[in-house]
Specification:
This protein is mainly α and 165 residues long. It contains 7 helices and 2 strands. The chain has a two-stranded antiparallel sheet with strand order 1-2. Strand 1 and strand 2 form a beta hairpin. Helix 2 packs across helix 7, helix 4 crosses helix 5 and helix 4 crosses helix 6.
Length: 165
């Protein structure tokens, strides 16, 4: 869609509307930094993550008689995951920003922990393999096993209840 005053720039699956008077959309020029994804955005691997979380929950159900249900949700959320549940593109944006010295303190604690772990692993790969690109290192890390789901017990509970309904 072209207009003299308005343009559309594709950003993943959603277009970003911006004023053509500006030379580029704010997220590109850095005038207005956006470090958080939009609330309600859909992640392409939700089904896989949900299936894995439900499996982790079921593996902890045997504890139900000895610990409260809330503890079962907590333990399920803390189980190792097959990958980091963030898109490669989003991880690349955040890790690149972190490596430039930008802080991610506005994120929730679990998400911040996840990005710090990803960043730590990316830095190690970059040190060990000098010829590798940041993109490739980030891709490798995101698709490697994660130590946990990086969900709060409350989020895990909500997802599991939604899946079991």
């Amino acid at each position: 869609i072209q207009s003299s005053a308005i343009g559309v720039r594709a950003s993943g699956t959603a277009g970003v509307l911006y004023d053509k008077v500006k030379k580029a959309p704010p997220c590109v020029t850095g005038r207005k930094k956006r470090h958080m994804k939009k609330k309600g955005s859909v992640v392409e691997f939700n089904d896989q993550r949900d299936k894995e979380l439900l499996q982790a929950f079921k593996s902890q159900l045997h504890l139900l008689g000895t610990v409260p249900l809330q503890e079962v949700f907590t333990r399920a959320a803390m189980m190792p995951a097959s990958r980091f549940w963030v898109s490669e593109r989003r991880a690349m944006i955040v890790i690149s920003s972190m490596l430039k010295g930008n802080r991610i303190e506005s994120m929730n604690t679990k998400k911040r922990e996840m990005y710090h772990e990803i960043c730590r692993r990316v830095k190690r790969i970059l040190e060990e393999e000098p010829g590798i690109t940041l993109t490739e290192a980030t891709f490798r890390v995101v698709n490697s096993p994660a130590p946990e789901f990086y969900l709060t017990p409350k989020s895990a509970r909500a997802m599991i209840y939604r899946l079991r309904a």
